[in-house]
Structures are given as C-alpha cells and as structure tokens.
Amino acid sequence: MTFPPAQSPIETTVRLKRQFKMHDAFTLAFVYISPIVALYAVFGLIVQAAGPAGWWVFPIGLCLQLLIALSLGVMVSRWPLQGGSYQWARRLMGDNYGWLTGWFYIWTLIFVFASNGYAIASFIPAALGIEAFTTSTQIYIALSIVCLATVLNLLGPGTLKLLGKLSLGAEVIGSLGLATVLLIWHRQHDLDILFTTAGAGGDSYVLGGLLVALGFVGFGLAGFESVCSMAEEVEQPEKNIPKAIIGALLAIGIIVSYCALALILATPDFAAIVSGAIVDPAASTIQAAFGENIARVFFVLVIIGFAASMMMAQTSVSRVIWAFSRDRILPGSEFLSTLSSKHRTPNRAVILVGALAVIVTLLAFSERVYATLISSATATFFITMGFAVLGLLYRLMVKKWQAGTFSLASMTLPVVIGAACWIVFEIANSAWPREVVGQSWYVSWAVFIGISLVGLSGAAVWLSIRKNLKGSQALSESVEHLLPDEANG
Description:
Elements: H1 9-14, H2 22-33, H3 35-40, H4 43-50, H5 57-78, H6 85-93, H7 95-128, H8 135-153, H9 157-185, H10 206-220, H11 237-266, H12 270-275, H13 281-326, H14 333-336, H15 347-363, H16 369-397, H17 412-431, H18 441-444, H19 446-469, H20 473-488
Helix pairs in contact: 2-9, 2-11, 2-13, 4-10, 5-10, 5-11, 5-16, 5-17, 6-7, 6-16, 7-8, 7-13, 7-15, 7-16, 7-19, 8-13, 8-15, 9-11, 9-13, 10-16, 13-15, 16-17, 16-19
C-alpha cells in the first residue's frame, strides 16, 4: 500500500489528534450507556409496561445487543474511521446508502442528547428535596442543561475524560453499592415475583407489555457503538475499539440486570406503578429504603451519570457531522469541518448539535415528552444499525467480505443474521403505535412521525448535496490510507 506524502493537503487539513487510549475508549463507551443511565432511563417505563416480570428483558436484551456489538466490532476493525456507521455503510453498499445511514445516526444521537437533558431536569428536584417541576418548567431547565453541556464540551476532551471518571465512581456507589444494600436489607419479595405482572400488559401480556418493555431495554443498552464515531482519535482503533464496545456492553448489561433485580425485589407496591400513581418507581423505592438524605446523594450520582452520557452523545454526533463535512456532503461543510486550533476538535459541529437539541426538546413538548424522545431514539438507533448490519450481511452472502483485525471467523454469518433479525424486530416494535387511554393520537404516532420527519428532511438535504457524493470518495479514501501509518507511528 502506498501512502500520501507527509505534507499532503489531506494530512494538513483533516488530521485529528489521537488522544484516547484503550482504557479511554472503554470508559467513553461505558459512560455513554452508563448503568445508572441504562437502568433509570428505562426502569419505570419497563415496570409500567410489564410489571415485575419485565426484569427478564434485561438479560434477554443484553444477549441480543451483543449480536449487534460483535457485528459492529467486525466492521470498525476493517474501517476504523471517524463517523462510524456512515463510513461502514458507505463502503459496504455505496455513497447514497452510507449517507442515509449517517443521517439517521446523527438524529439518533441528537434525540439521546435531548432526552438526557430532560432526564437530568427530572432528577434535580429529588436531589434538592423540592417539589417536582411542572412539565413546562422541566422543559425550560432541560434547555438550559443542553446549553451548559455544549459549553462544557467546547472546553475540550479533558472535560469529557474528567466527567467520565466521575461517572465511573458514581456507578460503583450508585449502582452496585446501593443495589447490594437493597438486596440484603430491604427485600420485599421473593424471586417468584419475577414471574408475575401486577396487572401490566393487559390480556395479552407477551404481545403487549413484554414487547413494549423489550423495546425500551433496547434503548437502555444502546450507545456502546458511540466511540466508533471517534475512531481516528483512538490509538490502534482497529484493535482497541472492538474490545471496548463489547467489553463495555457486557459490563453494563450485567450491572444493570443486577441492579434491576435489586430494585424489583425491594419495590413495595407494583400496583401503584402499573396504574401510574407512582411515576418514578426507582426514586420511590430508594427514598423508601434509605430516607430522604441518602436518596438525595444518590440522585446527585444519577445526575453525574446522565451528564457524562449526555456529553458523550454530543461528542459522538459532532464527530459524525464532522466526518460528513470533511467529505463535503453537508450544507455548510467548509464551515463545519474546521477544527479548533487548540484541541483539534470540531467545535462548530458541537454548537450545531446543541442548537438542534434545543429544537428537538421543544418539538417533543407533550404529555409524554421523555417516553417520546426515548422511543424515537430507539427506533432511529436500530434503523442506523440496521443499515450497517444489513449491508454487512449482504456482503457476507455474496462472499465479498474481507475481515479486519477482529474477526468471528465461521461464526460471522450466524451472528450477523441474528443481529439483523433483532434489529428488524426492534424497529417494528419501537415504531408501532400503541393506543393509551387519555393519550392524544399524535403521541401514539410520535415515533412514526419522528422517523418520517427525519427521512423527509434527509431527502431534502440529500438533494442539495448529492452531486458532491461521488466527488468526496477520493478524499475519504485518501484519509483512510493515512490511518495505518498514523496507528503505527
């Protein structure tokens, strides 16, 4: 393989700084999902949908998500490039296919960024010991949090690393520590409660509550792939990133399953949760077990976990936008592709993400803001992963796949088929409109409407830049050729 000259135009204009090691990649993947975020983002929704038996979706969801993580590990090992799924899908199935994949992934991460801001706002009253905010107040506070996170991300990678370390400490205390105390001293039920529904799911539990809960856990255990979007900032990404995303997902899944078990066995009143009388069952159970003062400390740890996850989401999506802009396939690409002089990070893309998250938060203003944002993020996450995994499946089927450093050998095809089936199921499950008594029609159809808006807006943007797609391929390939030399040098 021949490499461009040391002082080529590509090298001087698009070179990033490799400032994350293997342990950093694991930490970033870990804190994006975060046991606290993964559990408390969806625990109440899962119990309301499926009752105590909803616990089973955590280990089931982990096994199914691992199929996706293994498939992505295969792809990032072959193409360790900034932009993640956009880069893989483009090389698997062509320019237009890759562009659409990246477009949906951009909006997935923006939905996650916005939903985490809203979640942090919901935990502030519990941390301060004050009355819960009204929906409108919570929206305004969420908008302020989005702006603050954007400012912190503009300070450079050091802030993200520090918050990641704080989040890891919060996980140990807030997840494993409190869960163990709940299991030993505050159990209210035996294990047979895991086989009851407390009236959740109606007459058709499997087709109703359990499937809804499985959709939510898909969101709770998503995000392990986010560090793939930063591949050109990680040392030896073809080796380190597959290990990081698979290891982080396994660690998160096991911790979350353990903590969910502790919470369910310590929950005193499931009927009140299913009926909606208790809106936040995790908070209610922790306050009942530990009292107000300890609960406040716990919610501070929860806020730290959500903040780290939120900043990682913004970091990841800014890198996808930057990868698009480097290839000149977004409006304003020249402006957005400029890196900061100090940290060599795409600060302009970071600001754009903050502005778009503000718009998303305002558009999600409804009686079910949080559930709507989570459902939308779940659907678009699986759509994005679906584009990449189905592209890989096609290349495997026609025997036009060459593995990178990380390979599953003969198990590659069965794993990718399993991942593809799970993805298709989750897309249908997340987007399917489910009627709820007293709920406006547009809330039931919010995910479908959101996906349609993302698709239509994508079509409009694609029409404006489609002539640049083929022309950008040479630049993208030249950047790819730089990577082995950088990784070794």
